[in-house]
Each structure stands twice: as structure tokens, then as C-alpha cells.
Amino acid sequence: MNHPFFSSLSRSLTRSQWAVGLLLLVLCTQCQGPDSAAAEEDTGEEEIKARAAVTVGHLQTDTVTDILHLTGLTAYPAKDVLRATTTGYIMAPAPVPGQQVGAGQTVFTMQTKESRTLHLDKLTGDPKLRFSGIIRISSPRAGVMATVDKLAGDYVQDGEQLGTVYDQSRFGFVLDVPVTQLRYVHTGQRCRITLPDGRVLPGQVAEPLPAADVSIQTQRYTLKPLGKVPPLPENLTVTIDLDKSAPQVAGTLPREAVLTDETQTSFWVMRLLNDSTAVKVPVKTGAEQNGRIVIQSPAFSPKDRIVLTGNYGLDDTAAVQLSR
Fold first, then answer.
1. What is the domain-level CATH number for residue 178?
2. Do both 211 and 224 map to the same domain?
3. What would be an example GO MF term here (predicted)?
């Protein structure tokens, strides 16, 4: 192995290997350069894309009132049930639902079963005679026939219900107030009654009824509408709004700007530190009116930028991007 020929061959191979290695190193460097730059650009684009697109707004000063929203029902507190005073048959003509009746007006006419069997009305020739077996049932007050339970020709027992008459002049609403909210409701208090079709009627709390619902613990009040009332059926569900406090000036934010947890015990908003960072700020909320929530604390400056949309799911100190 110490022969001069082998020593020269070994040196020659070593130089060739160094040359090849250097060439490969140069080629690898040239190939990796553009890929590395592209990878860095992709990373930058991903960081930009990771920023949440948000819109911002400012605290707004509004005049708000804390409102108690309750549910009520239409009612006719003055109603009369017309009943049969004997056993017999209903004679024509029979009233129809919705028919107007006057005080003392005959609504139902009955014929006793004895009169029907013996034809007493034909024997006497005068159905107005007392022994003819014709019985007239009149309405004690003026109103409208709400229900008609028996028709002409029907056989009824003594005391059976024939129909009901509602006194439309005594129309009103019934309001069930939870016992935890009784301090906000009092006799003579004004209220707003919203019908299912969106119409709003002014009303007034008339009087409490001396009974409470044991199962749901509510106190019942009667409400008197103020002004003209459209014809409404009984037991129609309406919304009753009562003011819990006097109007006050307070700072408000849109409902979508205020976030909360699953139990709705903690509330917060996202405030911008700069154009690219939003931080979580716990807040204490108040009444809500027309889609805006009162912010009781902390005291935000009118210049503070609050995230209005795109804030859902953002962590504290989140990277954001303003939407134009």
C-alpha cells in the first residue's frame, strides 16, 4: 500500500470528493433559498389570516327606563251564565254567538216537558198564559252572547247552562305578577299593553285580587284599558310593560357587544388597545331597552373603541383586524 502509484491515486480521489461535496453544497443552498423565503411569506400570511375581523363602536348616552315585562290575558270580569229554570225543551228562535242582547231581553224560550206532552199551549190558545208551560229566560244585563250551549229543540235539565253573556263595557285585562316583583306594581300605575298584532294600548292597574296562585306564586291584578279598545276575545295573551324606575341618562352599548358565560353571571366586552389588539374588560350591566344594554361599570370614555361584531370566542389580548 506504500507504493507511489497508490499514494498518488488516494490523493487524487480525495481532491475529487472535496470538489463534488462543495458542488453539492452550493446546489443545495441555491435550491433551498427560494423555498425558505416562500415558507416565511406563507407564515406571515397565516398570521394575517389568523386575525379576527371586527367592527368597533363607542359608548352611547341614552335616556333609559328599567321596564318590567309581564304577560296578561284579556278578560270580561262581568259575565252572566244563563241557565235552565226547569226541565224541558228549547224553543225557536235560539240566539247565536256574538248576538247583542239588552238588559231584561228574552234570550231563551223553554217549554216544559209536561206542556210538550199535553199540548197546553194549543189547548189554551194563548201561550202567554202562565199554565201554558212556556218559560222565558232573559239576560240580567246588556252585553253580547259569548257562547250558546243549546239550540232549538234540545232537551235540557233544570239548572243546565244554556249560554253566557259578556258585558263588553266591563272589558279589561288580567295580569299575573310574580311575588318577587310585587314592589314594582301598584294601583293606579300606568302601563302599556301590546297586542299580538303589534298595536299598543295605554292602560292602568286597577286593583289587586285577593288571591294568589299557589303553584307559581303570582299575585293577580286587573288592568283597565284607557281609550278605545278594538273587539277582542277572552283569554288572548298580551304583553304588559310597566316602568320599574324613572327615566335616567346612562351609557349604553348594543346587545351584541356584551358577551356572557353559559350561566349568564359574568359579562364582558372587548376593548381595543390599538388597531390590532383587543383586551377583555369585565362589565356590570343594567337594564336593556331597544336592543341596547346599560353599562353601569366601568366608566368607559367616549373615545374607547369597543368591539361590536366579530368578538364572539375571542380570548383576552386577541389579535384583531379592523373591518372597513
1. 2.40.30.170
2. yes
3. efflux transmembrane transporter activity
What pLDDT shows up at residue 134?
84
Range(s) of the domain holding residue 237: 68-76+170-243
Question: pTM here?
Answer: 0.55
Task: Tell me what pLDDT residue 264 has.
Answer: 87
pLDDT (0 to 100) of residue 82: 93
Computed on alpha carbons and rounded to an integer, the radius of gyration of the chain in Å comes to 43
Give the CATH number for residue 128: 2.40.50.100
Note if the bond before 298 is cis, omega within 30 degrees.
Answer: yes
Beta pairing, strands 318-322 & 52-57: parallel
| Mean pLDDT confidence for 74-94 | 90
